[in-house]
C-alpha cells in the first residue's frame, strides 16, 4: 500500500469531503422539509392529500435514487429544468430522503397512544393544538434515532452524485485513480473520510437522543 | 331549539359501528349537581355513551345537550370544530389509563389547557395549578413528571387537570379500574370531595359500593339499552329486572 501517495493527496480529499458535508447538510435540510410535508399529507383529514403523500412515498422509495438523479439532471433540461450538478444532487437526494423520512416521522406520530390525543381534545384543544402541544413533542423524541438512520443512509447516498460529476469524495477518488492508477489507496482514503463523517454524525445523534428523553 | 332542557339531556342516543348497534335509543337526563353512575357488563356500551357526551365518539343518531346548548349540533366542519372545542372545555373527562402528558410536569399538565385556551398569565396559571393540586392532595408533587407518580397519584393529577378548566360536568370512565386495590381509595376520596362540592358527574364504574355511597341515581345498561334506572337503594337492593338481578348477583358475589 502506497501510504506516501495517500498522505500526498489527502488534502485534496479533505476538500472533497467538505463538499460531501455541504451536500449532506443541504440534502438533510431539504429531506426534513419534504419529510414534514409528506407526513402532514399522509396524516391529513383530506383523502386527496393522503393519496398525494402515499404516492410521493411509494414513487421515491420504489425507484433507484440514481435513476431519480439522472431524470432530474439529464432529463430536466428537456422539460425546462436547468440545474447545475450540485443543485441537482441536493434536490434529487433531498426529495428522495424526504420519502424515507416521511415514513419515519409518520411512524413516530402514529405510535403515540391515542389516549394522548383524546385527553388533549377532551380539554378543548383543537386538532392542531393537540398535535403541536401533545403529540409532536412526544413523537419528536421517538424520531431522533430512526431519523439518525435516515441521515446515515443519506450521507452514504451522496456518493451517487459522482455519477453526475459533482466533485465530492467519491468523484475525487475516481479522478485520482485516473492519474495514479491506485484504486485501492484512493477508495480506501475516501472510505476512511466517509467513516469519520458518519461516526461523528452518529455520535451527535446518540447525544441528541439521550438529551431529549423524558426524565 | 331552546325549549326547556335538563342540565345534561341525552335524547335518543343511537350509535352503530356498521351493523353493530352499540347504543340503542338511550335517553338520560342529569340535573345540575346530580351524580349518576352507569353500571353494566363489559361491552354494554357504557364507555361509548360517556364518550358520546363530549363527542369523542360521534353518535349516529340523537342529541346531546348541556346547559341548554346542543353539543353535537350539525354545523359545517370549521364551525363545528370551534363549537366542539368550546363545549369540551366545559366537560371534564377522566380516563381509566389517566392519559397524563408524559413530557410535561404535573404543573404543566394542569396549566397547559387553561393557559392555551383561556390566555392565563403565568402567575394566574401557577395559582390555578397550586389550587387544583392542593384540592386533590398533590401539591407536593407539582414538579414531578407523571412517570414518577403512582397510579393513584396520576389519576388525582388527571382529575386536577380536568378541574382546572372549571368544567360544568365531569365524566369518569372507570377511573379506578386500572389501579392496584390499595390505591383505589385515594381516588374515591377525591371523587367524594367533588360530590360534596356539588359537581355534576357521570361515573362509569364497576365499584358498586362506591356507586351506592355517592350517587343519586344508578343506570344499569346491557347490550346498548338502559335496562333499569333509579336511586341506588332501589337498583341495588330491589332491582325489578331479571338482567339486573343476574348482573348484581355475579358482580357482588365476584367482589366478595
Ligand atoms: N371503534 C369501534 N369499532 C367497532 N366496535 C366498537 C368500537 N368501539 C367499541 N365498539 C364495540 O361497542 C360495544 C360497546 O363498547 P364499550 O366500550 O362502550 O363497552 P363498555 O360497556 O364500556 O365495556 P367495558 O366495561 O369493557 O369498558 C362493544 O361491543 C365494542 O366491541
Ligand atoms: Mg368501557
From TrEMBL, chain A:
Keywords: Amino-acid transport, Cell membrane, Membrane, Transmembrane, Transmembrane helix, Transport. Residues 17-205 form the ABC transmembrane type-1 domain. It is found in: Cell inner membrane; Cell membrane. One of its GO terms (biological process) is amino acid transport. Its main location: membrane. The keyword Ligase does not apply. The chain crosses the membrane at residues 16-39, 51-74, 153-172, 184-202. GO terms for molecular function: transmembrane transporter activity. It holds the Pfam family BPD_transp_1. The keyword Membrane applies. One of its GO terms (cellular component) is ATP-binding cassette (ABC) transporter complex. InterPro entries: AA_ABC_transptr_permease_3TM, ArtM/GltK/GlnP/TcyL/YhdX-like, MetI-like, MetI-like_sf. It is a multi-pass membrane protein. Belongs to the binding-protein-dependent transport system permease family. HisMQ subfamily. This is Amino acid ABC transporter permease. It comes from Palleronia caenipelagi.
From TrEMBL, chain B:
It comes from the Bacteria. This is Amino acid ABC transporter ATP-binding protein. Keywords: Amino-acid transport, ATP-binding, Cell membrane, Membrane, Nucleotide-binding, Transport. The keyword Membrane applies. One of its GO terms (molecular function) is ABC-type amino acid transporter activity. It is a peripheral membrane protein. One of its GO terms (cellular component) is plasma membrane. It holds the Pfam family ABC_tran. Residues 8-248 form the ABC transporter domain. InterPro entries: AAA+_ATPase (IPR003593), ABC_ATPase_HisP-typ (IPR030679), ABC_transporter-like_ATP-bd (IPR003439), ABC_transporter-like_CS (IPR017871), MetN_ABC_transporter-like (IPR050086), P-loop_NTPase (IPR027417). Its main location: membrane. It comes from Palleronia caenipelagi. It is found in: Cell membrane. Belongs to the ABC transporter superfamily.
Amino acid at each position: 500500500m502506497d501510504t506516501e501517495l495517500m498522505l500526498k493527496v489527502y488534502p485534496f480529499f479533505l476538500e472533497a469531503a467538505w463538499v460531501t458535508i455541504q451536500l449532506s447538510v443541504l440534502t438533510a435540510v431539504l429531506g426534513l422539509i419534504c419529510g414534514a410535508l409528506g407526513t402532514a399529507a399522509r396524516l391529513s383529514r383530506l383523502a386527496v392529500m393522503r393519496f398525494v403523500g402515499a404516492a410521493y412515498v411509494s414513487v421515491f422509495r420504489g425507484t433507484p435514487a440514481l435513476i431519480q438523479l439522472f431524470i432530474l439532471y439529464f432529463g430536466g433540461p428537456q422539460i425546462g429544468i436547468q440545474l447545475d450538478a450540485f443543485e441537482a444532487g441536493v434536490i434529487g437526494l433531498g426529495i428522495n430522503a424526504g420519502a424515507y423520512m416521511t415514513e419515519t416521522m409518520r411512524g413516530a406520530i402514529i405510535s403515540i397512544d391515542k389516549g394522548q390525543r383524546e385527553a388533549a381534545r377532551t380539554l378543548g384543544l383543537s386538532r392542531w393544538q393537540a398535535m403541536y402541544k401533545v403529540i409532536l413533542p412526544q413523537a419528536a423524541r421517538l424520531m431522533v434515532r430512526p431519523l439518525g438512520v435516515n441521515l446515515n443512509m443519506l450521507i452514504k447516498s451522496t456518493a451517487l452524485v459522482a455519477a453526475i460529476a459533482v466533485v465530492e469524495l467519491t468523484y475525487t477518488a475516481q479522478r485520482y485513480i485516473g492519474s495514479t492508477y491506485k484504486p485501492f489507496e484512493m477508495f480506501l482514503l475516501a472510505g476512511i473520510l466517509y467513516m469519520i463523517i458518519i461516526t461523528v454524525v452518529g455520535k451527535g445523534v446518540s447525544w441528541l437522543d439521550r438529551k431529549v428523553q423524558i426524565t | 331549539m331552546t325549549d326547556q332542557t335538563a342540565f345534561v339531556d341525552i335524547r335518543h342516543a343511537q350509535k352503530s359501528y356498521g351493523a353493530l348497534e352499540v347504543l340503542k335509543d338511550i335517553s338520560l337526563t342529569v340535573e345540575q349537581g346530580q351524580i349518576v353512575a352507569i353500571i353494566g357488563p363489559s361491552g354494554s356500551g357504557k364507555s361509548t355513551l360517556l364518550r358520546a357526551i363530549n363527542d369523542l365518539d360521534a353518535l349516529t343518531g340523537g342529541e346531546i345537550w348541556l346547559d341548554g346548548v346542543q353539543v353535537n349540533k350539525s354545523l359545517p366542519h370549521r364551525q363545528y370544530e370551534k363549537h366542539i372545542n368550546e363545549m369540551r372545555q366545559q366537560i371534564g373527562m377522566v380516563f381509566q389509563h389517566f392519559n397524563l402528558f408524559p413530557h410535561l410536569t404535573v404543573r404543566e399538565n394542569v396549566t397547559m389547557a387553561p393557559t392555551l385556551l383561556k390566555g392565563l398569565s403565568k402567575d394566574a396559571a401557577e395559582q390555578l395549578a397550586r389550587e387544583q393540586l392542593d384540592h386533590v392532595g398533590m401539591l407536593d408533587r407539582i414538579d414531578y413528571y407523571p412517570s414518577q407518580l403512582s397510579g393513584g397519584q396520576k389519576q388525582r393529577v388527571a382529575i386536577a387537570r380536568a378541574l382546572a378548566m372549571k368544567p360544568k360536568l365531569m365524566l369518569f370512565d372507570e377511573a379506578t379500574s386500572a389501579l392496584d386495590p390499595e390505591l383505589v381509595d385515594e381516588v374515591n376520596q377525591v371523587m367524594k370531595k367533588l360530590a360534596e362540592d356539588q359537581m355534576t358527574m357521570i361515573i362509569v364504574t364497576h365499584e358498586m359500593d362506591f356507586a351506592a355511597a355517592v350517587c343519586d341515581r344508578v343506570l344499569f345498561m346491557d347490550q346498548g339499552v338502559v335496562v333499569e334506572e333509579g336511586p341506588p337503594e332501589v337498583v341495588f337492593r330491589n332491582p325489578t329486572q331479571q338482567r339486573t338481578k343476574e348482573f348484581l348477583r355475579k358482580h357482588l358475589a365476584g367482589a366478595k
